[in-house]
């Protein structure tokens, strides 16, 4: 699970939307009327959907479930007028209730419009109205929305079922294990408990205690199934810790002191932890930076990020106006993909990404080859030519570093 701090929840205010349909109780009547009109003209839902370039389900919802699924847009309403040959403007039916303004609040949306001129910003107010519900139904649903703020992406690790034991599979196919030591979390140099030395259940002298030093490891912490982007939003929600629990060595030393000195009640616990801080320090992986996104794309033009549906899907405060050379909306950090590739792939493996996007996995594979001599081969598949071109450039950028090396 990759946790991250998102800047803005994309939730719809249900109360406001209800007030935009002040005649919501009349929608079933309008929907039934649309259905009778269509049937009187001997038009099928499939025909109407094709004329409006919509799905048949959309036409069905207008007629049978308008409260749940909405009213035709003004554009579609005007098309229906021509198709069904009736009068009546969209505004006659789609009336909004007038909400009372009860105050104002600051919005940093204008400040985030970096592409706007300063002169324009000066004339654009940072204040937006605070309103209260107007209709009875809107009052009932005040404070309700449609989405939680996204804060994680799931990462599914799966393995094809095999006959026999895991070891048999590894011997035969060369895959199936998890690269623990290659994916340990760095510890800034401090030694971490690995295993207590066997055969010392109760230490009686200092020589026995010294043997515990052999159980220390500088490989790093055992990898967890959680990774995060290092944002304040995530780290502040993780507990403050002092390397987890008191070390086993310290407990052994305490037993030794009690047995030999009788001062167990006066032990100093202030230095019995290896390090301290937010537990988030164990699971860090940064978001994709601008450099990471655009590395190798010097010959590409800066464009607005788009999700393929003509709906900008960038920072909501900037309304999709951030210009980038890599226009894919969900670029993964190269460091994260390196970690995931390294976690399950022995050196010399072939890495397949059937949904390549802008090539973050391929770029990660090349960096593993560059940094760790992994000797990986990469195969990527992507249906959008725009993203294929971006992926090829990003991957080749690192591949050239390998050639130069």
Q: What does it look like?
A:
With 405 residues, the chain is an alpha+beta fold. Helices cover 36% and strands 10% of the residues. The protein has helices at residues 14-19, 27-40, 45-51, 56-64, 66-69, 74-84, 90-93, 118-122, 136-140, 166-173, 206-210, 232-235, 248-260, 290-294, 334-344, 360-372, 385-404; strands at 2-3, 100-106, 127-132, 152-153, 192-193, 216-217, 227-228, 240-241, 277-278, 303-304, 323-324, 350-353, 377-380. The strands form 6 sheets. It has a 3-stranded mixed sheet with strand order 4-1-7, with no helix packed on it. Strand 12, helix 16 and strand 13 form a beta-alpha-beta unit. The protein is elongated and about 75 Å long. The protein starts with a strand and ends with a helix.
List the helices and strands and how they pair.
Layout: E1 2-3, H1 14-19, H2 27-40, H3 45-51, H4 56-64, H5 66-69, H6 74-84, H7 90-93, E2 100-106, H8 118-122, E3 127-132, H9 136-140, E4 152-153, H10 166-173, E5 192-193, H11 206-210, E6 216-217, E7 227-228, H12 232-235, E8 240-241, H13 248-260, E9 277-278, H14 290-294, E10 303-304, E11 323-324, H15 334-344, E12 350-353, H16 360-372, E13 377-380, H17 385-404
Helix pairs in contact: 2-4, 3-4, 15-16, 16-17
């Amino acid at each position: 699970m990759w946790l991250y701090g998102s800047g803005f929840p994309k939730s719809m205010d249900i109360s406001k939307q209800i007030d935009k349909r002040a005649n919501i109780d009349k929608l079933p009547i309008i929907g039934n009327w649309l259905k009778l009109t269509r049937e009187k003209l001997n038009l099928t839902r499939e025909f109407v959907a094709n004329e409006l370039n919509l799905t048949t389900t959309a036409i069905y919802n207008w007629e049978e479930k308008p409260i749940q699924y909405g009213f035709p847009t003004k554009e579609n309403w005007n098309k229906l007028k021509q198709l069904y040959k009736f009068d009546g403007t969209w505004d006659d039916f789609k009336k909004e209730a007038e909400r009372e303004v009860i105050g104002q609040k600051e919005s940093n949306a204008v400040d985030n419009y970096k592409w706007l001129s300063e002169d324009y910003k000066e004339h654009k107010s940072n204040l937006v109205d605070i309103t209260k519900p107007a209709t009875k139904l809107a009052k009932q649903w005040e404070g309700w929305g449609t989405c939680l703020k996204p804060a994680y992406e799931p990462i599914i690790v799966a393995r094809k079922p095999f006959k026999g034991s895991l070891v048999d599979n590894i011997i035969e196919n060369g895959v199936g294990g998890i690269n623990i030591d290659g994916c340990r979390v760095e510890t800034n140099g401090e030694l971490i408990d690995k295993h207590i030395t066997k055969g010392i259940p109760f230490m009686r002298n200092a020589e026995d205690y010294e043997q515990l030093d052999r159980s220390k490891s500088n490989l790093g912490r055992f990898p967890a199934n959680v990774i995060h982007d290092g944002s304040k939003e995530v780290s502040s929600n993780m507990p403050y810790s002092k390397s987890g629990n008191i070390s086993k060595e310290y407990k052994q030393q305490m037993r030794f002191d009690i047995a030999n000195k009788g001062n167990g009640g006066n032990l100093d616990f202030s230095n019995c932890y290896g390090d301290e801080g937010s537990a988030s320090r164990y699971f860090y992986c940064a978001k994709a930076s601008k450099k990471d996104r655009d590395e190798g794309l010097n010959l590409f033009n800066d464009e607005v990020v788009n999700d393929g549906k003509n709906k900008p899907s960038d920072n909501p405060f900037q309304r999709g106006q951030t210009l980038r050379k890599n226009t894919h909306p969900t670029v993964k950090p190269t460091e994260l993909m390196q970690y995931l590739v390294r976690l399950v792939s022995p050196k010399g493996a072939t890495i397949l990404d059937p949904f390549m996007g802008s090539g973050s996995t391929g770029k990660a594979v090349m960096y593993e080859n560059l940094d760790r001599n992994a000797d990986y081969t990469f195969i990527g598949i992507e249906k959008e030519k725009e993203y294929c071109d971006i992926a090829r450039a990003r991957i080749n950028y690192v591949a050239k570093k390998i050639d130069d090396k």
